[in-house]
Design brief:
The chain has two domains: 2-19 and 235-421, UDP-n-acetylglucosamine1-carboxyvinyl-transferase, Chain, CATH 3.65.10; 22-228, UDP-n-acetylglucosamine1-carboxyvinyl-transferase, Chain. 31% of the residues lie in helices and 25% in strands. It has helices at 22-31, 48-59, 66-69, 90-93, 103-110, 129-137, 168-179, 194-205, 237-250, 265-273, 311-318, 337-344, 374-386, 397-400, 406-411, and strands at 2-7, 12-17, 38-42, 63-64, 76-79, 87-88, 112-116, 141-145, 148-152, 160-162, 184-188, 209-211, 217-221, 230-232, 252-257, 277-280, 284-289, 298-299, 324-328, 348-352, 355-359, 368-370, 390-394, 416-421. It is globular, with a radius of gyration of 21 Å. Bound molecules: uridine-diphosphate-2(N-acetylglucosaminyl) butyric acid (EPU). Uridine-diphosphate-2(N-acetylglucosaminyl) butyric acid is lined by residues 23, 26, 98, 124, 126-131, 165, 167-170, 191, 195, 308-309, 331-332, 374-375, 402.
Length: 426
């Protein structure tokens, strides 16, 4: 199994390009199930989760151009002219919870679906009850059997659905199901994340009639039929935010290209308060860090608040900022797995329920550490870039789920980071 080896203390310099967003690409891939024909995706990130989703689509009967997928940057086409199955098996779903996103599209297309229920994961219990309740409101009969949700419907019908809390994939699942339902669906307290809006924009390009994207009320007027499209995936705001913070950790300056700074307002504003110098253009972010950062408090919130997917990374920065920082995680109940690993590098962090109190120290020291989930891995990379000495990060398959070639990108701007085979089989 691979590990990352980082020699810390090398300031960054140059420019780095952001890839397509994982969390936009996955629902867009699910949307190809909604109608027959050939879709083409530009800026599709090459990630383990994207590859798993393509395999899931293939199992369902789609033809995937894996040869193009194997070439970085090539457009990738997916032909969903005929589907062979309506089942998402446990084997795939357990490796990627986002597989639940096929439920809405399969019901819309085939009026039946059998999808393994995702279990809990490292960051929390993560139930999917709001996806299921929404689909029931639209006329789906659900049966939970042997760990699978078996769903059947006649043509789905529009409904008014209130989400108890904004759910990203829940909003996406229902929006896809509603696109071809009979009548109008109104989603209240819907998720406002840019990835939800990007999916809605793609559905509209396919012929759907969706309004209110980016707001808490989304209205979907069902249409009879959708058509395939060629579509481009939006830039990954979490990857871009991670690179901005990499400058905070390692020092130096970076121009982050192919980014959308309008998706990162809460994050950039927080990082400016912490002392980073940041300038933005339409599709770039310039960051400079010349001195030690100041501590800031952070509370994760649904968009447009500070994203939970950048909580672990900002904690790595706060570990060496001057002062005391309180970081509160409000989205997932167990998203502090990185704390124990950061402490192995010398960080002074105490957790109390959903908050972590971080007392900034002068510098972290390199250590062997273990990646526990995707964003926790990114925080260890940042910690390693700023630490004195060598950090080895094990179990980096978590990182490969959501960051395309992160070590190559960082090495190209001056970081001393490389991938090696680990001698230990973990
Ligand atoms: N929730 C429920 N019931 C549901 C659905 C959600 O109680 O039916 C709860 C969750 O347990 C959580 C909150 O609602 O406490 C919000 O969860 P949400 O449904 O929004 O999360 P998700 O859709 O499963 C997506 C991203 C996550 C990201 C969250 C929050 C994708 C594929 N995943 O997950 O991304 O953290 O939204 O922004 O879009 C990551 O990329 O590392 C990642 C975990």
């Amino acid at each position: 199994m691979d590990k990352l080896v980082i020699e810390g203390g090398r300031p960054l310099k140059g420019s780095i390009k952001v890839s397509g967003a994982k969390n936009a690409a996955l629902p867009m891939l699910a949307a190809t199930l909604l109608t027959e024909g050939r879709f083409t995706f530009v800026n599709l990130p090459r990630l383990r989760d994207v590859h798993t989703f393509l395999r899931l689509l293939e199992e369902l009967g789609a033809e995937i151009d894996f040869e193009s997928y194997g070439k970085a940057d090539a457009p990738v086409s997916i032909d969903t002219s005929s589907l062979a199955s309506y089942e998402a098996s446990y084997d795939l779903v357990r490796t990627m919870r986002a597989s639940i996103l096929v439920l809405g599209p399969l019901l819309s297309r085939s009026c039946q679906a059998r999808v393994s229920l995702p279990g809990g994961c490292a960051i929390g219990e993560r139930p999917v009850d709001m996806h299921l309740k929404g689909l029931e409101r639209m006329g789906t009969k659900l049966n939970l059997k042997e760990g699978y949700v078996e769903a059947k419907c006649k043509r789905l019908k529009g409904a008014k659905i209130y989400f108890d809390i904004p759910t990203v994939t829940g909003t996406e699942n229902i929006m896809m199901a509603a696109a071809t339902a009979k009548g109008t669906t109104i989603l209240k307290n819907a998720a406002r994340e840019p990835e939800v809006a990007a999916l809605g924009n793609m559905l509209n390009a396919m012929g759907a009639r969706i309004s209110g994207l980016g707001t808490a009320t989304i209205v979907i007027e069902g249409v009879k039929k959708l058509r395939p499209v060629e579509y481009s995936v939006i830039p990954d705001r979490i990857e871009a935010g991670t690179f901005v913070m990499a400058v905070g950790a390692a020092g130096g300056s970076l121009k982050i290209e192919q980014a959308d700074p309008s998706h990162l307002e809460a994050v950039l504003s927080k990082l400016k308060q912490a002392g980073l110098k940041i300038k933005t253009g339409k599709d770039w972010i310039y960051v400079e860090c010349k001195r030690r950062l100041k501590s800031v408090d952070v509370k994760t919130m649904p968009y447009p608040g500070f994203p939970t997917d950048l909580q672990a990374q900002i904690m790595a920065l706060m570990a060496t900022a001057s002062g005391l920082s309180v970081i509160t995680e409000t989205i997932f109940e167990n998203r502090f797995m990185h704390v124990a690993e950061l402490k192995r590098m010398g960080a002074d962090i105490k957790t109390e329920g959903r908050s972590a109190v971080v007392r900034g120290i002068k510098s972290l020291h390199g250590a062997p550490v273990m990646a526990t989930d995707l964003r926790a891995s990114a925080s260890l990379v940042l910690a390693g870039l700023g630490a004195e000495g060598r950090t080895e990060i094990h179990r980096i398959y978590h990182l490969d789920r959501g960051y395309q070639a992160i070590e190559k990108k960082l090495a190209s701007v001056g970081a001393d980071i490389r991938r090696e085979k680990a001698d230990m089989p973990y």
